[in-house]
Structure prediction request, 602 residues.
Amino acid sequence: MSRKETPFFVGYLPLPRGLGGFVALVSVALVALFAAAALLIGGTQDAPQDAAFRFDYGRQTVTGVVELTPYPLLRVTEGNDLIPPGKTLMMTAAGKSGVDMRAMGLEGKLAQVSGVVLERGTIDMIQLRGGRRGIQAAEGEAPAMQTEPLGRWRLAGEICDGKCLYGAMRPGRGLAHKACANLCIIGDVPPVFVTTQPVEGQDFMLITGPDGTRLPKEAYDFVGQFVTLEGDLERRGDVLVLRLDTPTIALVDG
Amino acid sequence: MSVKYVPVQWNRSKWVYDGIMLAAVVAFLYLFLYVTPELLSHENPINPQVHNARAFGACAFLMLTVILWIGPLARIDRRFLPLLYNRRHFGVMTTFVAITHAGYILNWYFAFSSSDKYAALLFANTSYGQLAGFPFEAFGIFALVCLVILAVTSHDFWLKFLTPPVWKALHALIYFAYVAVVAHVALGIMQDQQNHTFTVIFIGGALSVAGLHAWAAWHEDRNGDRLGTEEGGWVDICDARKIEEGRAHIKVLPNGERVAVFRHEGKLSAISNACAHQNGPLGEGRIIDCLVTCPWHGFQYDVRTGRSPAPFTEMVPTYTLRLSGNRVQVQVEANPPGTPVDPVEVPA
Ligand code: FES
Prediction:
């Protein structure tokens, strides 16, 4: 369009004749573009993991033996319909905090815990109530618990924070969620390793550092990514625990 | 061209402009926030905070993309100039949408820990040495800071205070912000997608911005202003009779400045092509009511003096001109802004 025929627009004067149709067309196109983009982008988001807090089950109170891996586990001895004896629960506090401090003095002892469970196919984690109402020593002698060593494994998968994976946040894994996952792990929420292939019938395991330490800082750079790693695996009730051999962790290309 | 500063000098065009832009944004947010959850019907839905953050983030990206379309489109086809007229309001709107996006993220992913959320933003992920898993939030923060600077300095007060060249240079930050946004999205959400609809829209949007700029540059190269030839301090412009009444002919001078030679009531006058407001191309404007009117925001100047009519005080440099046969020529050195110059009669 040459300059000669172009109607001349001045903002504070009425729209010149001949330009009105064009401007109207562009305006409609603009609104249509925004509407279409919203439906296309918003309507094609991936489904998040099938996991959630189960507030609808109500508060659960069970008793069991506390084990520190160092992330505390509860080996349930006295349960209920939902959480039968023999079950193992990972434990976390509200927000991005673990319950390490509260569980510390209870290692190997019987304790009663109370809180809301998180479910991802199975129930493996409980968020405890605050203070002693969440976890306290229980009467009675703690029975001996078995830990079954499963040898050294080389596995592929992703390190996540257990709580978000279990539905505290949806989506709760992957790279866009990495900073959040790191923050949880820094706060002692139990980290988990989600494997690409099932291992001993499970697709996840609690992951710790070597020799009863927490997940080492070096592993933080790998959180949320597809990695391979090696470590010693053990079974504690129905939860697997992997003791990471830190130098073996590596990114998988592609 | 205000003598006193008011937040916005509203006029009908601005109301209509903002209304249309707002309609587009509201349509986007409404459909994304309230309609797409129904479409998705996931067993366990995406958390509202994340859904909202995505809505505002995607909206801000689209708004930025459109903002960057407007410049080259107006250069390619002048009918798009009305979109340029009030672009800053759209920019300020974008800043608010982007801040909302950041707020949702900050109060979700970075909240609930024992640390301060702003501190957490800085220390939670420090994998700066790698591409995958890079703290892509940093790019978002950078872009947001740019947008806030641009929004805050968008008012004409700052334009005048900083002078148009400095202001223009500062507002080129928008390009850095856009590149940062592209990196923010590419290293963030795009790493986790299974469905690639968004990826296609995102890459298409970013490429369209780059493509339009390249097209506009090529267009300008072909149709743009030409360099005038100089002889003895005078630059040849064109055949004086070729300039239409009320219009100008633009030439680039050897020193890189542009001059616009206007014909008004059969006489020729020359002023700088750069508008005192934001360097808009005065020579592409028209003479309305005896005054040269800038095509960008309508500032006006008397073509014989380079001065805005009272009570306004803007001035542009004028040029002394002469005829050599039928050719009009201007003196290379500009006169100080606002210097009256006697117009030259167009030969019959
Ligand atoms: S550049 Fe804004 S009116 Fe000329």
Summary: Helices of chain A lie at 20-42, 100-103, 131-134, 162-168, 178-186. Residues B 275, 277-278, 280, 294, 296-299 surround FE2/S2 (inorganic) cluster (CB under 6 Å). DSSP finds five helices and 13 strands in chain A.
